[in-house]
């Protein structure tokens, strides 16, 4: 549980740090607790941290493992750390982790994609070699977030459409503090006339003799968000979001943090003229968010609640608490997404989302909240609690294949129904088509590059009509890049709705999108 602040220690200026990234000993653990008896040749018992473990080895046992894996390594604590408090922080472990230091349970956490930290001073020996063991469990059940279920203890089922990557997928850091240290900072900003107003809680801490004990440097931006029934504004100016849904996903490392990949992605985001994206369908690495802050990209920051039913309230609220405590000071985060495609048509979802959104509002009222919905407005129970209404619609893909004429009316009708039902701004968070790069067909045929382009162009026509109505506030295509999914006959090597390939090269559609996003920029920015 996170019962303390989750400030990223990389930005602290008086704390010593030791990275535990690198190569760890690795083994699969069988259900009875014994190590799984796989052939020595079956996998290498070494794992890179950070990375998802699934796609590193040549073994299906590793890729498809369900349950616990063990990571181990040793580390030296300098003798000079003997007088300090010592902390251990994980950027994320998917899905749950038990962390043992010198054989004793020191920390535990569940819910992937979110950082956790704990004090380990009493567990380590300063000036000596220490052992760390992390037991990582990737099992998803009916009350984990996201949900899944396990069939006969060997097969993990889940409904969400991305591979259930697991492991220590973000950096691991040891660091020190004094007895008194900065636990948390909250910065809030506003604009009054032409002045920026900054309110903050704490910056430097000194002891009684005036010695600086802790210093934290926080990057922030001065801006004020506001919204009403027709618009979403930054510093009083209406914003139109143009971007994508994305994934943390790439060859070999899965969801493992990869700085070159992150820079490549931002370079493509700039190239294409987007101003925003949604962290579908979970919180992204802090390194990714830091760059969004400094590059001025707007983020819809999503919880890990994807395709959920209404029976995991406690974990859903916990994920929101942890997400907001991590990202509350980020200027890039302009909206929270409480869930992706939850079952908001069920009657029980009314009380459920009343409580989820009320909880979120106790933590932050400075940003609007949305849900990426695929339940139509007539059945939906969640819109009454939201500030901005978002919907996903896959015309000419999951329905009416080959028929683009349906797009205009269906998108227009659903957007209008959302707006008139709740009197709130509306945006589209997903539309798109799977496309095999290099497959061409004239006239366009499903899966061809021409098909994706035509589907996009037809969507652009209706988005422009909607923009003229004055309450349509954004468009995000699904997806930025192709990504891996579970094995499924509908998915040829994964989900191919990217406008970039998984290797981050453009499909023909990326060039079309570039023309649109830059012309929107010229018109609106
Ligand atoms: C959706 C989901 C997304 C899928 C996408 C698709 O509605 O939100 O996770 O990947 O559709 O391509 O089916």
TrEMBL record:
<protein>
    <recommendedName>
        <fullName>Beta-glucuronidase</fullName>
    </recommendedName>
</protein>
<dbReference type="InterPro" id="IPR006103">
    <property type="entry name" value="Glyco_hydro_2_cat"/>
</dbReference>
<dbReference type="InterPro" id="IPR006101">
    <property type="entry name" value="Glyco_hydro_2"/>
</dbReference>
<dbReference type="InterPro" id="IPR023232">
    <property type="entry name" value="Glyco_hydro_2_AS"/>
</dbReference>
<dbReference type="InterPro" id="IPR006104">
    <property type="entry name" value="Glyco_hydro_2_N"/>
</dbReference>
<feature type="domain" description="Glycosyl hydrolases family 2 sugar binding">
    <location>
        <begin position="19"/>
        <end position="177"/>
    </location>
</feature>
<dbReference type="Pfam" id="PF02836">
    <property type="entry name" value="Glyco_hydro_2_C"/>
</dbReference>
<keyword id="KW-0732">Signal</keyword>
<dbReference type="Pfam" id="PF02837">
    <property type="entry name" value="Glyco_hydro_2_N"/>
</dbReference>
<comment type="similarity">
    <text>Belongs to the glycosyl hydrolase 2 family.</text>
</comment>
<dbReference type="InterPro" id="IPR008979">
    <property type="entry name" value="Galactose-bd-like_sf"/>
</dbReference>
<feature type="domain" description="Glycoside hydrolase family 2 catalytic">
    <location>
        <begin position="231"/>
        <end position="520"/>
    </location>
</feature>
<dbReference type="InterPro" id="IPR017853">
    <property type="entry name" value="GH"/>
</dbReference>
<dbReference type="InterPro" id="IPR023230">
    <property type="entry name" value="Glyco_hydro_2_CS"/>
</dbReference>
